[in-house]
Amino acid sequence: MMNALRRLLNHREVLAGLFVLLLGLVCLAAVGDLDIGSASEMGPGYVPRALAWMLIAAGTGMALVAALRTAPEALPALVLRPLLVISLSVLLFGAMVDRLGIVLAVVVSTAVASLASPISRRRETPLLCAALAALSALAFVKGLGLAIPIWPR
To answer: In angstroms, rounded to a whole number, what is the distance separating the alpha carbons of residues 7 and 21?
Structure first.
């Protein structure tokens, strides 16, 4: 029994389905007790709850189909460097965007994220940082009008 369960969990598609199912459950819990309303007068919880149930159904279907139809293949080895560096990059962006502005936060987080891969090109990283910072400032601050500082206050 444990061997069959271990083989099933060593299956990419089953794990992907379980992830979508878990995401749907988290979304359903996040909706909480928002009023659903009715189809003619939708409350604030109507669409989020419907989407959460769709995620739950999709995840369940994905996991079941994968478990029944396809042969399992081994998962690749977990490589920690990209996982940790990209997570650090996202955390740095979140910590810096209010104090340093979107331009510097994007530059720093992009530079840190470029360290995730050993084959990233060091000459292209500054160009990528500049392009992403400019596009982020234009899209989010100017285009969408979000109240994010462009430069340090």
So the answer is: 19
As a whole number, mean pLDDT of residues 35-50 equals 85
pLDDT at 16 over 70: yes
pTM: 0.58
Q: What is the DSSP string of the chain?
A: -HHHHHHHHT-HHHHHHHHHHHHHHHHHHHHTT---B-SSSB-TTHHHHHHHHHHHHHHHHHHHHHHHHS---PPPPP-HHHHHHHHHHHHHHHHHHHHHHHHHHHHHHHHHHGGGSTT--TTTHHHHHHHHHHHHIIIIIIIS-----SS--
Compare 8 and 87 and report the one with higher pLDDT. 87
CB 39 within 8 A of CB 81: no
Question: Is residue 55 within 8 Å of residue 27, measured between CB atoms?
Answer: yes
Contact 96, 108 (CB under 8 A): yes
Q: What's the mean per-residue pLDDT of the chain?
A: 87
Query: CB-based contacts of 80: which residues, under 8 Å, 6+ apart?
Result: none
